Amino acid sequence: MDIRHLRYFVTVAEHGSITHAAEALGIEQPPLSQQIRQLERNLGVTLFERQTRGMKLTEIGEVLLPRARTILDLQAQFLSTAEGLARGERGHIRVGLAGAVPLLPVIPLTIRRFREMAPDVTLSLEESNTPALCAALHEPSVDIAIIRPPFTDPSRLSVFHLLDEPTVIALPRGHRLAKEPIISLDMVADDPLIIFPRELGPGFHDAILSAYQLAGVTPTMGQQAPQIAGTVPLVAAGLGVSVVPRSLSQIHAGGVTFHAISEPAPRATLAVAIRTGQNMPLVTRFVTVLRTACRKWEQRQHDTAPFADSENL
């Protein structure tokens, strides 16, 4: 049965006339009459009583009419959904976020704006560490991952640079350098360095230690934090100092001050990863919007107020 037969059936039923239905459909009357009879033969039922002044539904036709309308509505929904998916305007995407990424204002701002741009898209967010997110892409339990490169297994993943975030030093309140606006790493070489386990973010972990090395000092290793953002409470507890992405200065933990780092200063690099060969227009659209927003953020990162102009993205 051709779906057109149902459309013809519904149109004739709504107009009660072959003549008026043919005009509404933009076809001739004889072919429409033939199509209705063909539908009745295919179904083995009589849908209409042919009258002198029109067409009247039979009892069977009355029963089948709402079902035919339901099928046509489902077809319209199917086509609308397919078109929306093709344009990246419908669907569901799962986004993974590496440690402390949600604290960088450009990320939640971009997610919010994407939802405004594509209100029919469902976004679900998951926060984890870079190795776990790369594994989740392979499974796949996420479609997009915002990670801290590099990572150990880049196979079957396509990775695009997003930005290099400046870092700051977090000091416990009352520290001897608490009033210094800019601090070099050699000035805190004797303070225990609170850092997260390397396996959670090997790229950023190594960048911190390399910066100390370039400054000509070896840090005194202190307690490990369970995650990047977890370093700040440990600093507040007076257990040491930490080098963190500048966005973590938004954490209003009592007992911590944040200070710019003089060169050499590490950068907290972010990238977005997707599965190689990923051809979902929705994923492509989200990645494009994200990369554009991050590129604008990098152009403005020289501003002294962290992301004060975020609304101009």
UniProtKB/TrEMBL annotation:
Coiled coil: none annotated. The keyword DNA-binding applies. GO terms for molecular function: DNA binding; DNA-binding transcription factor activity. The keyword Nucleotide-binding does not apply. One of its GO terms (cellular component) is protein-DNA complex. Keywords: DNA-binding, Transcription, Transcription regulation. InterPro entries: BudR_PBP2 (IPR037410), LysR_HTH_N (IPR000847), LysR_subst-bd (IPR005119), WH-like_DNA-bd_sf (IPR036388), WH_DNA-bd_sf (IPR036390). Residues 1-58 form the HTH lysR-type domain. SUPFAM superfamilies: Periplasmic binding protein-like II, Winged helix' DNA-binding domain. Belongs to the LysR transcriptional regulatory family. This is Transcriptional regulator LysR. The gene is lysR.
